[in-house]
Amino acid sequence: MADWSVTLHNSIHDIPAAEWAQCAGPDNPFVSHAFLSALEDSGSTGQQSGWVPRHVCLHSPDGQLAAVCPAYLKGHSWGEYVFDQGWARAFEAAGGRYYPKLQIAIPFTPVPGPRVLLHPDAPPQTTAVMADALRQICADTGLSSAHVTFCTEAESTALHQQGWLPRLGLQYHWHNRGYATFDDFLATLSARKRKSIKRERRDANAAGLTFETLQGASITQADWQAFYQFYRNTIDRKWGSAYLSAEFFPLMAQQLGERVVLMLARNGSTPVAAALNLMGTHTLYGRNWGCEGNWPFLHFELCYYRAIDFAIAHGLQRVEAGAQGEHKIQRGYEPTLTHSAHWLQSPGLRNAVDRFLQAERPAILAEAQALSTLTPYRQDLLPQNP
């Protein structure tokens, strides 16, 4: 790291938005200055949630900004979706102190994407230098570990080459193979699955509800108030923590504009369910959903099928519908590997976690392979990727 310099920032506002945007690029809204600032300005991140901003800036020897990382000090492991609580318990049982740790991630958001955000003119060794910088931050500040979660495969590989431990996970993504309509997508499925999806959509749309797809400024404050209640309903049912504040959602929409897509269902004039999505350059990202009442197949209609409709209409390549849910496979979503990389300061803990991950990896690969055989697609009917 000779002649490179690293700075830590307690707020995304310490870093000019234009400079951050040069590194983040336009593709993934979750790494944008706008999204991260909405989290901070709404109070969703900070001391009260245990996600304390410590964003990292790396400058090359010529003084130019080469890379940034969205980074947080964490006193717990909640809201991450890559689970290391077992590592923490084992380390603390042996007399160690696992928390605080450094989390390079998007808070509460299991969306894959870049985490070491490179300036277009960054030297080729920048990711390797950032790996050293993050390790040095841990050593200098007494942090037990650094975790780069839901990063790209290329980032995971680069970090592994610098001694970090790679980890795999599984999600379910829908891929647009050049479909012009939803019926084109259905035509690639087996007859039984095609019939099942048609029945689910028919029943969802026969329940007397009206559906809207709203973007940006067309989403009213009343819509956001209703959505926040739906979000809380979902959190309460799952015994989770409502990290995102009521102020976050309209502020995010104000910051991101048309990239915010809300699928809303009404019973008469009363909202009864909604699904929140963010639109990237190539991908529609499904985020939060909630409802009041019991409506047949409404979750599938709002979160999966209308997302596919939207992606086809807007020429998007993928729909990412969030973590978990093998049931998504039967609705056209395919198992997809996710990646993370981990640095642990303690050699003993690092060796133990390395053994655990080496044992875990074949099981995840085998699960992904087994799940891929459950695909509802007829291979002879699939069009070529566009």
Automatic annotation (TrEMBL):
Gene3D superfamilies: 3.40.630.30. The keyword Iron does not apply. One of its GO terms (molecular function) is transferase activity. The keyword Transferase applies. It comes from the Bacteria. Keywords: Transferase. This is GNAT family N-acetyltransferase. It comes from Acetobacter fabarum. The lineage of its organism: Bacteria, Pseudomonadati, Pseudomonadota, Alphaproteobacteria, Acetobacterales.
